[in-house]
Amino acid sequence: xxxxxxxxxxxxxxxxxxxxxxxxFSKEALxxxxxxxxxxxxxxxxxxxxxxxxxxxxxxxxxxxxxTSAKVGILFGMSMCLWIFGLYYSTSLxxxxxxxxxxxxxxxPISYLIFKDKIERSNWIALPIALIGLAMLxxxxxxxxxxxxxxxxxxxxxxxxxxILNGRxxxxxxxxxxxxxxLSFVGVMGIATSFFLEQWPQQTTSSMVQWLLLSAIIGTSxxxxxxxxxxxxxxxxxxxxxxxxxxxxxxxIAAAWFSERMSTTQVLGCGLIFMALLINRWSNVRAWLKxxx
Length: 293
Fold this sequence. Notes:
By secondary structure, this protein is mainly α. The chain has helices at about 5-30, 35-50, 55-60, 65-90, 95-100, 105-115, 120-135, 145-170, 175-195, 205-230, 235-245, 245-255, 265-280, 280-290.
């Protein structure tokens, strides 16, 4: 492995840790802020922050590229609104992270159905395993999914579609500019929806500011900027394999910070989903293992 590859792997591991820590930041923020107001404020701040590093790229965008970025942002906004309600009602961050990670497995079949893109056999094998894992998570209530589980899965479905559109858009424009615009759209959507549906706090507390800034700057802005930089140093196979660590880190952080403990059924369900993630990226996993050896 060359120095660039080692550096990229290390940075991508940091990215997955930042993504996992962001779950904790967000859960803490929800104890002092309404869900939609929080997610809107978080992403609007993050979008503005990234824009500061992308001024040249943003100024060179065409009207068509702006429209494409807006479409990605709207879809991303819908998925994040569902996700934040999943987090709001959830009693297990680790479980929520594994359910949300199914989005990466749904990308291939949805892309095949919509755009007739090529799909590997491993993708078809991974999908039923992930769904079996998801079904096991609902066994806690006699096959009656919790509200949080349904919100997380709905968010995963929309996230998979966001990944597809984002990937196509990123092929023709700056990744940082695209990220800035899409995050800002999430922010505007969240705050606008919150204005009509939620009762806003009468005053701003230090706790609100603390968790909001940590979520926006560290959990979102720093994460996306670092991810974009790291992915430019390595191959897609390396990035794809390392990024599936996020739900594992999230479960460990939730156990340490919130003293969460999973039942045997939850462990089995999450284990199946993680197995599906590995199978889904099997060609990338093999390439990654070859480079390690």
